[in-house]
Amino acid sequence: MNSVLKIPKGREFDVVGFGTNAVDHLVTVPFYPEFDSKVRLVSHRRYAGGEIASTLSGLTRLGLRTSYVGRFGSDTEGRFGIDSLTEEGVDIGHAEIIEGASTQIAFILIDASSGERTVIWDRDPKLAYSAAEVPRGLVSRSSLLHCTPHDVSACIRLATEAGENGTVVSMDIDNVFEGIEELLPKVDILIASSDLPEKLTGRNSHEAALTDMRSMYGSAVVGITLGVEGCLLLSDDGFERVAGYPVPGGCKDTTGAGDAFRAGLLFGLLREHSLSDAARIANAVASLKCREVGARTALPRLEEVERLTGLTLSRQD
């Protein structure tokens, strides 16, 4: 059983997500090109992406009830993006289309030899939220709030409401930003990219930096993703270093692997698995995602995760 977090039961949604959606243009090349050179592409594809939208899609495929709070542009990309969530079964009752705005886009260059990618992105300022614009009352209807801090004041407002209602708060963060000292103490599950802890604490040891982060912000779980090496997490029970899984059939694309990891981790914790088993689930979801090009293309179903991990994963109607 999960002793790390006290998760409220019997709410309308398992997870409400607030933050980024995007439409990704993925260009696969045979090798990463040198500066001032030319290379013929292997393929070009358009898929829906974005950190929060992709994590919610992953959670929904695993059988959880999710709702998305975010903004799309009024362009064709926006319609494509919002339809992608509807098709996954994510509730979009609090998603908005902003007239005259452009949907967030990303151009992603994928090295076919390794599956590693480089992301070039842009977000229209018209898509930003102020604190006064976020929906009130939705967070209290969910067991967990998962967000990115692109609109910091809005994120603080939602995290505050979550704390007032016993809703667990999870944060997807990869950089230092203004307002971080006010926001992060409100976060229960703080999973970062591997280089962020040193930026926050000045400590170049992962273990020391995570220990400092937990002391500074009081999160129940702090951790970092380590790519093919898996992850390193810290809670009251100590450190959990959990190895990753090889990608079945080889890695085709790492785009969205971190989002997939978070989907698996949150699923495991919400279903009251131990932190180590939740990390195994997270690593498995991330590995399976990398089977195909695109952030969401190969996000797995529950049965696939069970086969890879050997775990029996609890189900709820």
Description:
Helix 1 (51-61) packs across helix 7, helix 7 (257-270) packs antiparallel against helix 8 and helix 8 packs across helix 9 (302-309). The mean pLDDT is 95. The strands form two sheets. Strands 5-4-1-8-9-10-11-12-13 form a nine-stranded mixed β-sheet, sandwiched between helices. Strand 11 and strand 12 (231-235) form a beta hairpin. The chain is built from nine helices and 13 strands. The longest helix is centred in the C-terminal third of the chain and has 15 residues, at 275-289. The two termini are 19 Å apart. The chain has helices at 51-61, 76-88, 152-164, 180-183, 196-201, 206-217, 257-270, 275-289, 302-309; strands at residues 13-18, 22-29, 43-49, 66-73, 91-98, 105-111, 117-122, 142-147, 168-173, 189-192, 221-225, 231-235, 238-242. The protein has a single domain, classed as UDP-N-acetylmuramoyl-L-alanine:D-glutamate ligase. The radius of gyration is 18 Å and the shape is globular. It is α/β, with parallel strands linked by helices and 317 residues long.
